[in-house]
Amino acid sequence: MSDLLQLEDFTQAEGEMHRPTLVERKSVDYRAIAKNVGRIGVGKKYHIKTYGCQMNEHDTEIMAGMLEEMGYTAASNLEEADFILFNTCAVRENAEDKVFGEIGRIKPLKNRNPELILGLCGCMAQEEVVQQMVAKTYPWVDIVFGTHNLHRLPELIDRARHSQETIFEVWDKAGDVVENLPKLRKEGIKAWVNIQYGCNKFCTYCIVPYTRGRERSRLLEDVVAEVKELAAQGFKEITLLGQNVNDYGIDLKAYDFADLLAACNEVAGIERIRFTTSNPWNFTDKLIATIARCDKVVEHIHLPVQSGNNTILRRMNRGYTREFYLDLVKRIRQAIPNVSLTTDIIVGFPGETEEQFEDTLSLVEEVRFDGAFTFIYSPRAGTPATRFKQQVSEADQKRRLQRLIELQNRISREINDAMKGETVEVLVEGESKTNAEFLQGRTRTNKIVLFQGPKHLIGQLAQVTVTEPQTFYLKGKLVTSGEEMAV
Ligand code: 5AD
Ligand code: SF4
Fold first, then answer.
1. Could you say which of 11, 116, 283, 354 is the most buried, measured as most Cβ atoms within 10 Å of its Cβ?
2. Does the N-terminal peptide bond of residue 277 adopt cis geometry, omega within 30 degrees of 0?
3. How many domains does the chain have?
4. What CATH number did the domain enclosing 206 receive?
5. Distance (Å, rounded) from C-alpha 425 to C-alpha 278?
6. Per-residue DSSP letter, 392
7. Relative to the alpha carbon of 210, which ligand is closest?
8. Which residue, by CA, sits nearest to atom 5 of ligand 2?
């Protein structure tokens, strides 16, 4: 038997082992469970450093909300903070290395200010190896807590004030879904909304099912209530967040993601509804038809493919084939003609041959994605793929990544070039960070647009004609109405 066959048998066995079980769970109210620790943060400052995905960014908004309720205010830099928190990502190794480097650099600050409290949370904190590493090498970390109990932050800070030792409070299983968490959203235009936590897919390279637990959906009425509140606060765009948004509701058995999109589409005041991340595995025709029909749901789908080769897809335990993916793309494009498709791709997965990598290139050519996040495979402790044979050399991985990026950049540029002269609807988000002369916003298809125009357009929808397309953004000219010309 060849190595590869053994490897495939092994993967299937792992898949069997990880058949998801539905979790009994209920919603609980943060106000009812949060211990009243009082306003112990008054006069103190906090700084949160966030790594990783949009879900982590949103968790940071929640923890900042809790801290501000305790009286803390945001510090402008690390030096003036009384509480420093690292909200971490475990998806790839290099992100983890960066965090340990940062924790090392904090030590002098701790020496200077013994009152300073240092916390580590997020996906890394869920890993046992990381907990051991903190205990052994970084004892100046005061609190370590995981993804399932971030609502416990106020109490943990309270305890840390009186403790000389690192407090570890990492739950290995998710508890109830916590509602009414405070949130400090940065600006008043776009907002993230959690709809589902965890992942049941167990792709063989991925640590997320271990760090985020099984899929749990929020109740539809709780999500819609939050979206209505955001509309009342003046937010124009929402992004529905989950590891597999199109699995939303499976655990609740009462409704699905398409029903949720349709319900959000009814909320007056919201102009755009985005969602991320989708999984090709359960992207139903009902969902495609709902996206096509709902005017506020944008024409952009982030649909991670990971590889264009069936053997690799099987070993990744992705649950679909290349042919299935291409057919799905065809059905999506038929129903939503101007849809923009983006993806995630991993190169150098264990055992990936040059020919198998070529299949990924040919899939990218065939689909013509608007954009792609491309990654070199990173072995994650505890995931099945670390035990697969034939790990690809770093040199080959780098070369493949380079070829893939070049191909994708060419395609992105060609797609953008074809938009020259087109007039697009832009939700204006603010001034460009690199050139204050320009305003910056996004099309419904999630393309960045830079153009010159009056500041009062910030937070509004504007019509912009594309004049100078680039690879990663579009430069354009505001279509001026009579009113704009008078400004
Ligand atoms: N190595 C490299 N990339 C990974 N991703 C997830 N796990 C790994 C890993 N071990 C990528 C996938 C996923 C994205 C969020 O991160 O492409 O879609
Ligand atoms: Fe990880 Fe996404 Fe696969 Fe879940 S579906 S295991 S989050 S790559």
1. 283
2. yes
3. 3
4. 3.80.30.20
5. 24
6. P
7. 2
8. 201
